[in-house]
Amino acid sequence: MTLLQASQKMFDWKHLLLGEAEWTFLFETVLRTFVMFIVVLVALRLLGKRGVKQLSVFELVVIIGLGSAAGDPMFYQDVGLLPAIIVFILVISLYTFVTYLVGKSKGFENLVEGKPVCLIRDGRFAIDNFKKEALAQDEFFAELRLKNVSQLGQVQEAIIETSGQISVFYFDEKEVRFGLPIMPGTLEKDAVEITEPGKYACTFCGYTEDLKPAAQHKCPSCEHNLWIKASNQRRVV
Fold first, then answer.
1. How is the chain split into domains, by residue range?
2. What region does 223 belong to: left with phi over 0, alpha with psi -120 to 50, or beta?
3. Cα 96 to Cα 93: distance, rounded to the nearest angstrom
4. CB 154, CB 230: distance < 8 Å
5. 40 — phi, psi (to 5°)?
6. Which of 123, 132, 153 lies closest to 233 in space, CA to CA?
7. CA end-to-end span of the chain
8. What is the DSSP string of the chain?
9. Which of 228, 39, 71 is nearest to 152 (CA)?
10. What is the chain's pLDDT, residue by residue, as a tens digit (237 residues)?
11. Which CATH number fits domain 117-229: 3.10.20.30, 3.30.240.20, 3.40.350.10, 3.40.980.10?
12. Do residues 151 and 230 lie in contact, with contact meaning Cβ atoms separated by under 8 Å?
């Protein structure tokens, strides 16, 4: 017995490649994929530009639902096209109905899509708001750096939108104040003990204060005691 014959005897290659389907199902898969591609294209066109570009939580659920309904009929032989198309019609109808309710009721809109939340105000963290968002500090700082922010004193307000994007409004260059530096590695220099006088920023809330040498100093805003030298660097655009 040759090696090829032995491997064919050991494995059922047809079952491995096709499962329970026959070879003719490959041609059916091509047709199914083509049909579902057209259905997905039409569905996204009906959802509109916002449904494709800036997804809220609700719209993300709709897209995932459509993707699941489209994927299964493409290669599962026991899943017909008609049920998938009905799912598409129902999902799009529900999306249209919910969008209508969102336009009629501000409370319903906040319930379904959430609302913008201010994370920084006047160069300091809005701590209560920041705690409500599932956003790590390092991740947030990375977003700010992408917008050419090197320290929080450059930021008048930073708002996380319902789409998850962050909008930043800056102080005028002449109004930039001392703030918490957010460049990589800077927060590793935080300390409890203040060894020399100067302007310091609380690493927890971004509060800045002139401090004199001391074994420790509690932040009057958040009562944490880790500090780092504040920066008044201007933005470089």
1. 12-110, 117-229
2. left
3. 5
4. no
5. -60, -45
6. 153
7. 73
8. --HHHHHHHHS-HHHHHHTTS-TTHHHHHHHHHHHHHHHHHHHHHHH-HHHHHS--HHHHHHHHHHHHHHHHHHH-TTS-HHHHHHHHHHHHHHHHHHHHHHHH-HHHHHHHH---EEEEETTEE-HHHHHHS---HHHHHHHHHHTT--BGGGEEEEEE-TTS-EEEEEPPGGG---B-B-STTGGGG-BSSB-S-EEEEETTT--EEEE-SBS----TTT----EEE-B-PPP--
9. 228
10. 555 555 545 556 666 555 666 777 667 767 776 776 667 656 655 655 444 445 666 666 677 777 777 777 666 766 667 767 777 777 778 778 877 887 888 787 777 677 888 999 999 998 888 777 767 788 889 999 999 999 999 999 999 887 778 899 999 988 999 999 999 888 888 899 999 999 999 999 999 999 999 999 999 999 999 999 999 999 877
11. 3.30.240.20
12. yes
Residue that is written with structure tokens 């918490």 in the block:
180
Which tokens go with 183?
Answer: 């460049």
